[in-house]
């Protein structure tokens, strides 16, 4: 009988991938350095040894080639799970993702499914060089035909990767890379996970709703804890699914609190926060006590590492936005 | 310093006659040491019929565009031999990834040409079932499908249907593309992946000399088939207006792929006699002399000469094919006008295999909006 195990987010993804491969022989992993090396973040560590080179495929160094061949493999009945090494390297594959992966089901009148998962380690905070710290989620969420999710903790990582792989639709799967090897959590393989396309309230509160996903969830939880010390009760919602959005828990919360802040690492302009704020305004107009504010990266390219602490929204910037909304 | 182009285009592209040819433009059979072929009269008649009917599809579709029934049409005039030769070489289980110009290949794969028109009319984006015909949907982004073909071929390797020795099972995949696409990164990445995994894919390039207005020498300073060597697999140039040679070369490349011998690049050297599409005007960028010169190399005329000279077909055969072409023309004219417009609500349910609540709500909202006009006059 399986027992509960403590795992980091990286180990949880590894375990989730392993279980998905055991469950379905059509599941293949593809990517650069994912085989013998186990990936630059070791997410696929040991999987090639156990499942062989035909199922854990070290690819040539060409992202469009990886996605384009994944399309062909999907058409041949396989379920490719592609690893993009870093967020900023997804753009060579952008055309295949947007023009082919996303549109194939529609183009074919529903005949051709594209069960392709694109795993992207995203976000900053690891002191990396250019192109290694980006948050491209809005560019994919803006594309009809794709579904986009982001995990924020080991338990979700374990379940969400399996659910994404089981999905008949293409899923952009965003992994908060700076949390890969941080806090561990208990994984119970016998548990029943919430549906993939659901947002989850991760902290109850009554004064304001803080909406976030991916690496910002831990920041927002800490912000809520700090605010509690000042007598403010903040509810935190982990959006988890960015496309489609699951607005039910969001609007339920905002109707109770009357106030909302959306936080993400991505650039604020036309980011996820803009869509979420617009939807909250439309759905909860008469409940709102203040405008919905957004906290995020500036509208500059991601900066050199020694100034990323200014670019990335931290606990204080989140709380500053909370203050502005509370005092409105 | 840029190198002065002292040489003419054809010198730059290598000697264009340095290709496999089994039937001259005059209809004379010639031998090639590596590609012997002894086609039955029946096969020759089949080639003639396929090419004639394919040309008729093209002529009718072009006329339908002029009449406003199609938004646009991508013509294949002059490329009939390349497509029919390549398609008739296929085994039933082989899978084809086309561009948007493979009307002849679609014909051979049993796709009703009316379905090709649907895409160019704007009724749909490809309504045939790829799995039924082993013929993928037309791909409009240049070169993207070469990667899909390579991935599909990797799938065949994993299915265990490569190199088994069973001719009913062993499967090859064909990636169609053109001379313009040879410059695309995706095509070059497809070459890399196919070579790396020795995938059972045949890259079939119809070099029709023109990428809309840009001549082949803008794309390549060496003959395209030479590129294969740099990627580590064989390349061969064939007279793309010679259906026998194209058939023979394709047969061999497909067999090699099915046996596990890996990819081959075939450059079918041909000429786009028409415009790029019906919106294009080739008189702005090329000389009529070239077109006239290529008219003498017509792919269908040379087969007719061969059939008549050897007594493989009589007047009655040619009349019958003509009659069949007329029937096909009527089918396309009537069928095209009768193609139903897509329902404004149908698209909402085709985006995902698993519909989302958000999109279902958007569909319902638009359905309500449309319904609000009912009865209002």
What characterizes the major β-sheet of chain B? 5 strands, parallel
> At the fourth CATH level, what is the homologous superfamily of the largest domain in chain A?
Thiamin diphosphate (ThDP)-binding fold, Pyr/PP domains
- Nearest-integer average pLDDT of chain A: 97
Helix and strand sequence of chain B: HHHEHHHHEHEEEHHEHEHHHH
What does this protein structure show overall?
The complex is a heterodimer of chains A (328) and B (377). Chain A is an alpha/beta fold and 328 residues long. Chain A has two domains: 5-187, Thiamin diphosphate (ThDP)-binding fold, Pyr/PP domains (Rossmann fold, 3-Layer(aba) Sandwich), CATH 3.40.50.970; 200-326, 3-Layer(aba) Sandwich (Rossmann fold). Chain A contains twelve helices and 14 strands. In chain A, strand 10, helix 8 (216-229) and strand 11 (234-238) form a beta-alpha-beta unit. In chain A, helix 1 packs parallel to helix 7, helix 3 (63-75) packs parallel to helix 4 (94-101) and helix 8 crosses helix 12. Chain A is globular, with a radius of gyration of 19 Å. The mean pLDDT of chain A is 97. Chain B has 15 helices and seven strands. Chain B is 45% helix and 8% strand. Chain B folds into two domains: 9-338, Thiamin diphosphate (ThDP)-binding fold, Pyr/PP domains (Rossmann fold); 345-377. With 377 residues, chain B is an alpha/beta fold. In chain B, the strands form two sheets. A five-stranded parallel sheet of chain B has the order 1-2-3-7-6, with helices on both faces. The radius of gyration of chain B is 22 Å and the shape is globular. The termini of chain B are far apart.
